[in-house]
Amino acid sequence: MPDTPDPLVIGGRSFTSRLLVGTGKFASHAVMRDALDASGAEIVTVALRRVDLSRAGAGDVLDFVDPTRYLLLPNTSGATTAEEAVRLARLARAGGMPNFVKLEVTPDPRYLAPDPIETLRAAEMLVADGFIVLPYCSADPVLCRRLEEAGCATVMPLGSWIGSNKGLRTRDAVEIIIEQAGVPVVVDAGLGVPSDAAEAMEIGADAVLVNTAIAIAGDPVAMARAFALATLAGRLGYHAGRAAPRSDAEASSPLTGFLGQSSVGQPA
Amino acid sequence: MSVAAGRFAVELAALDASSLSAYSLTASDADIDRALGADHLDPRHVAALLSPAAAVRLEELATVAGDRTLQRFGRAVRLFAPLYISNECLSTCTYCGFAKDLDVVRLTLTPDEVEAEARLLADRGFRHLLLVSGEHRVAVSADYLTDVVRRVASVVPSVSVETQTWSDDTYSRLVAAGAEGVVHYQETYDRDRYAEVHVAGWKRDFDRRLTSTERAAESGIRRLGIGALLGLAPDWRADVLAVAAHASFLCRAYWRIDVTVALPRIKPCASGFQPVAAVDDASYVQALCALRLAAPDAGIVLSTREPAALRDGLVRIAVTHMSAGSSTEPGGYSHPGESQEQFAISDERTPAEVAAMLTAAGYEPVWKDSFPLLPA
């Protein structure tokens, strides 16, 4: 796998891969481990509600994520209020996990839509407590500004609803967020196929986070590699500078090409 | 004193599940196509999926339902264990092994005994326990239940209760003690049949029971379990339609609540009750497919009432939550056979065996899916 042309820097740490992956919904921890490997990811998020520190060494999810290879990014999924998210993050830190936290406050169990108000409150509390905060949020340019002002290390607007595989439905808003952001923009949630990741990267996202599309693919390991390649392709395309799109054809031999030729169009 | 009808009771009356069930018997292939193509199913769509015409297309239904389950829940099945805390009961329900007038050994565990059972189940891997009791407001009082919830919540991160219905104040106390979920099956949504089988006691009040889910929801509980006991009422399709409508109502009315649904089938028990409607396995699978598509975000719970082969198959179609290695008698994990069970289980595999089956089938057995709700 070739390296991306420039490193991704989050919270003072530098990463080569711009694909972050989640660990939920896999058939087994062994399949997950192999998919993580194929993805080339360096940042792996784990739901704290699934972690059972009392079962360490007995098949818990953490036994399959090598902390020397990956930055383990604990997430607060399941939290419905700022206070719950903060408590979860502190439990993780007390349990020896990194002080990075993927903040998720999703009181709606159906769409797992992030609560903008509680997310911002939690971000303020966690930053004050010394955490490096990566908040999952709505694709809302003002909210992303506010999260950045609160001291978050990234913003992570959703492409579409978690697990929906619908792709970058929020593209117009994400473009504004990318234009305005002073921190890395990680498009999180809803990316269903590798071309969705490429699309997000082409418009200038700094990274993407993918879970469901890899976990429930027919071959999760192959899909992880496909997302890795697409993420890289999108980044390379972004740097290469795309040709502007046009709605009409541009003839390589223009009809008005004769204008300007010395024998035509000159006053007699 | 009877309780005023709640908000869903109004919707239930408007739903007219028996007319929809009658329509279901005439649904055409085109009706089924429309239902399978709909993003959001209305009650007529659900009725079409429950039709005899849809029964012929069961493999197609199962494929669509399985895809929906996989997308929403992934390759993962959540495991839990019921912890029976008491079989004492003041209600007479003709189908239940705990019914008041049955001459069976009665037992209510002390809080210490409940905690010991919880620790034993935690040692077997469980992190989600469902506390179950009969309806005896003296033996299983609000004070007692609050106490045992608090103790069990100190052992495992997820505690749910399946007991009698309670006042608003008691639901709030249970939440404050660390309860994550409340389960109240309506058993049947057919008011007339409900009155026939709930002969006496607190549970006889149809509206009290139906409205309790709403009151529990308003108390701040995070998960609500609802369901119907198939075989209790003659028209099983009407009950499935009502469960689907109930789940849909709860999701709309209480957007923070995680709803789970179940369709237990009547099992042999001390009551000697015989089902009035036989729901064969194919119809049962069809009902669960319809429920999955009607309520795509609802967890579907399947207990050890059902045999192993059926449970294993349904994981790939609709089921997302399973009990395993269950005992349905109070104290049955520490001292099996000393009390009366509520019903006979069918799947007698150990929790480890069920987990191994899930792994072999390509699913992750999820023991822990919660975090402690109360600060340590």
What does this entry show, briefly?
Chain A has 268 residues and is an alpha/beta fold. Chain A has helices at 29-39, 82-94, 116-128, 141-149, 171-180, 194-202, 212-215, 220-240; strands at 8-10, 13-15, 19-22, 43-47, 71-75, 100-103, 132-137, 156-157, 186-188, 207-210.
Describe this structure in words.
The complex is a heterodimer of chains A (268) and B (376). Helix content of chain A is 34%, strand content 15%. Chain A contains 8 helices and 10 strands. Chain A has helices spanning 29-39, 82-94, 116-128, 141-149, 171-180, 194-202, 212-215, 220-240; strands at residues 8-10, 13-15, 19-22, 43-47, 71-75, 100-103, 132-137, 156-157, 186-188, 207-210. In chain A, helix 1 packs parallel to helix 8 (220-240), helix 4 (141-149) runs parallel beside helix 5 (171-180) and helix 6 (194-202) packs parallel to helix 8. The radius of gyration of chain A is 22 Å and the shape is globular. The N and C termini of chain A lie far apart (65 Å). The model of chain A has no long low-confidence stretch (mean pLDDT 89). By secondary structure, chain B is α/β, with parallel strands linked by helices. Helix content of chain B is 42%, strand content 13%. Chain B is built from 15 helices and 11 strands. In chain B, helix 7 (111-123) packs parallel to helix 8, helix 8 runs parallel beside helix 9 (168-177) and helix 12 runs parallel beside helix 13. The longest helix of chain B is centred in the middle third of the chain and has 18 residues, at 236-253. Chain B is globular. The model of chain B has no long low-confidence stretch (mean pLDDT 91). Classes of the chains: A alpha/beta (268), B alpha/beta (376). The A-B interface holds A 24-29, 48-52, 55, 78, 80, 84, 87-88, 91, 107-110, 163-165, 212, 215-216 and B 70-76, 125, 127, 157, 222, 251, 255-258, 297, 359, 362-364, 366-371, 375.
